[in-house]
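Case study B.
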Amino acid sequence: MISRKLMLLGEIGVGKTSLIRRLVQGRFETEYKSTFGVELYRVPITRAGPNGDQAIELIVWDTDGNFGQRIFRHVYIKGASAALIIGDLKRRATLESMVALAESFQDALPGRHFSFIANKVDLLSEGEGAELPAKLREARQPVLLTSAKTGANVEDTFIQAASSILRRES
Amino acid sequence: MVWTDRDLVVCRCFGPLVDFVAVGRPLAESVIALIGFEPEIAALRAGDGGPLTIPNVILDGHAEPSLRLSLDIYWVDSAQRHLMLVRSVRDVSALESELRTQMRLRVIAEAELVEKSEAIQRANQELALINRDLEEFAYVISHDLKAPLRALRYDADDADRALAAGDVATVGTKLVAMRGYQARMRTMLDGLFEYARAGRKIDTLEEIDTRTLVESLAQGFAATTSLSIEVEGCWPRMTTLGPPLELVLRNLIDNAIKHHDLPRGRILISARDAGDDLEITVTDDGPGIPDDHHTAVFLPFRTVNDARDAEDSSGMGLALVRRTLDRIGGSIWLRSDAPHRRGTTFHVRWPRTISV
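Model:
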């Protein structure tokens, strides 16, 4: 099985750790605990392909949101195959910063896959649409709405990232 | 410490081996932080020997308690081996962790506060616009609609008197005039309705080729006028609100044609990049607009008096344009030096980024 590195990028408190913990532990912790440095997780994924099942192990790098743009000058970013760029639907500034993070990621690692994730969709009230900043809408990249609290779209998000890495390398 | 061969398979050399690796197995199997760093590790063999340092990393975020490490990887030429030194990094104490968490919660709370103040500011701006609308509507209802209503009443009284006197011809004339006032009021009410709608209607952002849009409008108008209509400048493709942009352009061109007083003339529609905005100008060589009308022309039912205004103009075109631009964060102003010089130029600032 091949192993590839997937970065979780985004501002402080957008739910990076909650998303990966929801995936690997199947639960949501209500107590907020900040990430210090980087924490790694293994996520094995099997994808059905035209030539049978394809297996990949994502090595997920859950980074400290404090890094901001400095992450792209840090050793942590080297060798990443993809990134999930995460924002908080209830904090517009974190959504706006996603575009700049994506641009820097593309500059640092040209051609690598990235996805935009707008997390905390559970905080929207019934009938309330996700209000995304114009910059993000104009980025011509779909924005996946997730909830680490309910688990909505979390697994799909990582499966999509794994599929994109496999497609790129096939 | 850990020794590996060139292929990063763990091997014995000397010194104590850390307990989480196994001899004969690839190092990256247990030290997953190395995955993706293969080129950097290979480069160590060609360079000065390193080290490649990966600081402050928890190898398994799932594990309790977590083990926080710093990794330094060298190429030892004399041994023809890679050496990885593993340093255990003091994990943050409970107090330090709590402090960091509180600091971050503060950062988040401050960011939320800024966003909430911005939302209040936006709501206040919206409220100011609504208040201005109310004032305008009150003014329109109390002044502009009153005039045809009053005329209607006078004509009805005249028709009554003429009927009592058996003057059928006058009754007929008054009835025709009354229908005219009724039609005028209907036009004004339709205009008001459209005006109100211009501020409330929600459009969706779409990819617009602004050149195609303006050229198709210019062609449409060219078929209805003897004036020449030219398009020039830099008209980009952009993600914007299509119908409101068309409304602005259509009304400005229509206004230039409607108020031109000569059979021959020129209307020039131009665009240029102005940073965050697209600046659109519509220039005509008509009679111009006197200075004291420069503000009033953007109010509902205001026209610069000329013979054609009474017939064709509802007086809502420029008001609609201004209201549309207000709603999307754009602006409009005009330059004209009538009666000293002919011609008027309307300048529009159309924001490139519109928040729907």
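The radius of gyration of chain A is 15 Å. The remaining cases will be described in the next quarterly update.
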